[in-house]
């Protein structure tokens, strides 16, 4: 194992899909948290993350099946 660690050709890493995250410094989210509190802020943040994730799924399915996003959301 020591030989592998010292071997500059050994690179046990792979590229992974980059992940979008909610920008905690977003002015609207800061305002929301200030006005409504942490619980509401976290609920909105979770909803935004889920909407973003599922919009990507709908777009991928639409591309695979040759439908528009609007048609994909209707089914």
Automatic annotation (TrEMBL):
Residues 3-59 form the Factor of DNA methylation 1-5/IDN2 domain. Keywords: Coiled coil. Residues 15-64 form a coiled coil. GO terms for biological process: gene silencing by siRNA-directed DNA methylation. The keyword Cell division does not apply. Pfam families: XH. InterPro entries: FDM1-5/IDN2, FDM1-5/IDN2_XH. PANTHER family: FACTOR OF DNA METHYLATION 1-RELATED, RIBONUCLEASE P SUBUNIT P38. This is Factor of DNA methylation 1-5/IDN2 domain-containing protein. It comes from Microthlaspi erraticum.
